[in-house]
Amino acid sequence: MKQNLVAALALGLFLSPSFAEAQQQAQEPKYVVKPLAEKKVSELPAGELFWRVENFATVAQAQAAMGPNSLVAESRGKVWLFTLGPAGQVSTGGTKVAEIGPIPKVEASQYLLRINEAGGPPGTKTPVHTHPGPEAFYVLAGETSQKTPHGVNRVGAGQSMVGHGDTPMEVWSSGSTETQSLVMFVVDAIKPFSSPAKFD
């Protein structure tokens, strides 16, 4: 009898509700956020700031065009250069994809610039959370939505939007196909990058 019980357990025939629930949750589609690049800087350029998004043929070419507020990342088979700075500028050797802004001001003794890749199947979403500074989105595929106390914004492939900082938000895949976005942050480097929150 003992041997039969061991064999049954080995085959996974006796699954506790908590284990079965964990297995089901592991198989459910999720909205995935993946950091691609980040750096800390002590100061930001003066005046209105925009995220400039450009493509390059190689990582080496993108790195050669970097400024003090630039980040290089690879995503979906392309090399990307993200630069936080004034509007209307271009990087030598790059192809301009988007200019997103102006970016809301953030005051800090040190800043974190970060690029995330984010997305998932239709209906998947992030928990409600906050960041200590604004984020900006460039949608590569599908449709991305963001809910904040200011309302809901939706953007599709090839479009961008500026988000809010220090306010509750929820981001989700709102189209009929999987969404994929590049998300740019400039936040207070001293504070936690992301914190749980809730809508009032």
Describe the structure in your own words.
This protein is mainly beta. The protein is built from 3 helices and 14 strands. The chain has helices at 2-10, 17-27, 59-64; strands at 32-41, 50-56, 70-75, 78-85, 95-100, 111-120, 129-130, 135-141, 143-148, 151-156, 160-162, 170-173, 179-188, 195-196. The protein has a 5-stranded antiparallel beta sheet, with no helix packed on it. A 4-stranded antiparallel beta sheet has the order 3-4-2-5. β3 (70-75) and β4 (78-85) form a beta hairpin. It is globular and about 40 Å long. The chain starts with a helix and ends with a strand.
How would you concisely characterize the structure shown here?
The chain is mainly beta and 200 residues long. It has helices spanning 2-10, 17-27, 59-64, and strands spanning 32-41, 50-56, 70-75, 78-85, 95-100, 111-120, 129-130, 135-141, 143-148, 151-156, 160-162, 170-173, 179-188, 195-196.
Please describe the structure with a list of short key phrases separated by commas or semicolons.
five-stranded antiparallel β-sheet, mainly beta
What is the topology?
Blueprint: H1 2-10, H2 17-27, E1 32-41, E2 50-56, H3 59-64, E3 70-75, E4 78-85, E5 95-100, E6 111-120, E7 129-130, E8 135-141, E9 143-148, E10 151-156, E11 160-162, E12 170-173, E13 179-188, E14 195-196
Antiparallel strand pairs: 1-6, 2-4, 2-5, 3-4, 6-13, 7-14, 8-11, 8-13, 9-10, 9-12
